[in-house]
Amino acid sequence: MAEAAASDWRPTADVAMLRQRHDLLRTIRRFFDDRGFLEVETPLLSRDTVVDRHIDPIPVGPLSGWRDARGITPNELFLQTSPEFAMKRLLASGCGPIWQICKAFRGGEQGARHNPEFTMLEWYQPGLDYVAGRRQLAEFAQLVFAADACDETPFHEAFLSATGLDVFRASESELRAAAGRCGLAVESAAQLDRDGLLDCLLAERVQPGLGLQRPAIVFDWPGTQAALAALRQENASEVAERYELFVNGMELANGYHELTDAVELLRRAGRANRLRLSDRPEHRRLHLLATHEFPHPRMNERAGCYRGWTRSSWRDMPAHVRAPVTPTARERTVDPQDPGHRLNRQCLPSASAHIDPRRPHRSADGGSRRR
User: Fold this and answer.
1) Cα 269 to Cα 2, 121, 228, 238, 266, distances in angstroms
2) Model pLDDT, residue 191
3) Around Cβ 143, how many Cβ atoms within 10 Å?
4) pLDDT tens sequence across 148-182
């Protein structure tokens, strides 16, 4: 115990891991440079924050002596859970395709693969449609994971194969029974709504079988899980134009063909706010930009994706893409000899996505399932 305490100052990554991380950063930067993206940096502190029901922003403040543009000291600022809103303000200003790697912060994210502070890659490209956005994510995955191809599977096919249920037609009682067979307590299953049950089954039954041979992209999600993705009607069902990347049974990236209808955007934000246990501010500034700053309809179409830079079971990943979550972790939660103990999610161009009844479904490593 004394020896362990004496060595606790040491970073969780050795020099070899830091070099691998450096090489991966260089590869990613080349990927975006070759495609004409502009690298940007956005604030980590803001008065506004995400309204997602299952993401907990970390409040900071008040900051003594600090004034905003109006000369007011806010009672509370938020560490950003992703750079999404700030990057969309840049998109609305006409900056073109953009990307960044930055720190992000989420309360309640603690485990072998999750940390309250993590590193995120996020990018957006105006004018990119749904199919082209998926293709771009596939190209990225093939480069990073040295894969010769990337599988693409509709959500309903992956769900049917793993559970035997049609995700668009199964009743809540059928989903609840399937969740019970996954080991979810009857009392817990009874409290979950349809989306909570879908998330549970996705995490416990579907996800573990995805991306085992090569990277896999799952697309066309149920409309109720659209988050900020555009919707379309298909075979009398509402489908979300959203896609996620899985490698070795783990979700690594989340992309959308982005919603650009300002009225619908505000409606969804309001609904998410009402569902949260504690109210958070709706992002009205983004609403105003979406209403007034896109001069042409074509400007509205864009694809976006985010990827948790440090989310993965590193022991299952190719050596050349292993990199520690942070070189010096806030707290050791696993074997300190395993420097790759967590790799969170987030990444791409116009695309981006959580459970409980009150909290998102938690995996064994302590992380929440959804965006």
Assistant:
1) 51, 23, 9, 19, 5
2) 80
3) 13
4) 999 999 999 999 999 999 999 999 999 999 988 88
**Beta bridge pairs of residue 255:** 243, 305
Distance, in Å, from the CA atom of 114 to the CA atom of 310, rounded to the nearest integer, reads 8
Range of weakest confidence among 1-10, 76-85, 133-142: 1-10
Q: How far apart are CA 76 and CA 266, in angstroms?
A: 23
Give the helix ranges, DSSP H, for 40-193: 84-92, 130-144, 155-163, 172-181, 186-191
How far apart CA 59 and CA 75 sit, in angstroms, is: 10
Phi-psi region of 23 (alpha: psi -120 to 50; beta: other; left: phi over 0): alpha
pLDDT at 180: 87
Secondary structure letter of residue 113 according to DSSP: S
- Residue 364 CB coordination number (10 Å): 9
Q: What are the residues facing 233 on neighbouring strands? A: 238
- 273 contact partners, CB below 8 Å, separation of at least 6: 51, 279, 280, 282
User: Cα(238)–Cα(251) distance, rounded to whole angstroms?
Assistant: 23
Report how far residue 165's alpha carbon sits from residue 174's, in angstroms, rounded to the nearest whole number: 8
pLDDT at residue 343 is higher than 60: no
Return d(Cα 96, Cα 307) in angstroms, integer. Answer: 20
Nearest to 285 by CA among 85, 51, 40: 85
Q: What is the pLDDT of residue 5?
A: 59
Q: Yes or no: say if 287 and 262 are a contact pair by the CB < 8 Å rule.
A: yes
Over residues 295-315, mean pLDDT: 48
The 8-class DSSP code of residue 316 comes to G
What pLDDT score was predicted for residue 50?
75
pLDDT for 75: 76
Taking the alpha carbons at both ends of the chain, their separation in whole angstroms is: 38
pLDDT at position 292, please? 39
CA 301 to chain centre: 20
CA atoms of 153 and 333, how far apart (whole Å): 34
Spatial separation of the C-alpha atoms in residues 207 and 312, rounded to whole Å? 13
Count other Cβ atoms within 10 Å, centred on residue 284: 11
Distance separating alpha carbons of residues 125 and 36, to the nearest angstrom? 10
Question: Measured between alpha carbons, how far is 151 from 128 in angstroms, rounded to an integer?
Answer: 20
